[in-house]
Design brief:
- There is one protein chain.
- By secondary structure, the protein is an all-alpha fold.
- The radius of gyration is 18 Å and the shape is globular.
């Protein structure tokens, strides 16, 4: 009977740990809104400069457009947090870029890709390899869910297609997964995230 009670308590605790709180939504917005502004008013220049050096380089730099999903997901650690972060940042982009509502579709695909990886770990594995995989998957989803369907990508040589896919994956892993973790860990060091699991992880590491 004691084993049954302990199992029920563990299950309730796990369920409670994934339940959303008001502070989770507030922090998700506080993280995603600035990123949406940066994407709109700053990163576009970096992306354009990269494309100017080498056209395919833009596919690598696309990875930073997924960082909101990884960052918010890593900090909040709730089902749907990665998707929420990406969608909020995408909403901010709409009035600041000429692309219009299409950024919502791209944000949805990116957020779903990251969310899929986190869900695959049952929101329990937050190590760097998992975050980099999430960034890579989030970066590649729009390629097949938008770019491949709305452009002439399918008519390109297989070598170019493989190169672009590889660059998207690497860019997502680095600019979303790695950079997202670095930003989150830096914020955690300041103490502003002491009410979140990421702070408890830091204590265990120390």
């Amino acid at each position: 009977m004691d084993n049954v009670r302990r199992a029920e308590q563990d299950g309730a605790s796990a369920e409670g740990s994934l339940a959303w709180k008001t502070r989770d939504v507030v922090v998700a917005a506080a993280l995603a809104v600035p990123l949406g502004i940066i994407w709109s008013l700053g990163w576009g220049y970096v992306w354009t400069a990269g494309r100017g050096i080498l056209p395919e380089f833009g596919f690598l730099l696309d990875g930073f457009y997924v960082v909101a999903a990884v960052l918010v997901g890593y900090i909040v650690r709730r089902p749907g947090a990665a998707l929420l972060g990406e969608m909020i940042a995408s909403l901010v982009e709409i009035p600041l870029t000429p692309f219009g509502a299409i950024v919502l579709w791209l944000g949805l695909l990116q957020g779903l890709g990251v969310e899929l990886v986190f869900a695959g770990t049952r929101y329990r594995n937050w190590r760097l390899p998992t975050l980099m995989l999430a960034g890579a998957v989030g970066a590649i989803f729009p390629y097949f869910g938008y770019t491949y369907l709305t452009s002439s990508v399918a008519s390109l040589g297989i070598d170019i297609q493989v190169l672009r896919i590889a660059l998207k994956l690497v860019g997502g892993a680095i600019f979303a997964g790695l950079v997202g973790k670095l930003i989150a860990d830096a914020l955690a060091k300041t103490g502003v995230l002491n009410n979140f699991p990421i702070a408890r992880d830091r204590v265990r590491e120390i």
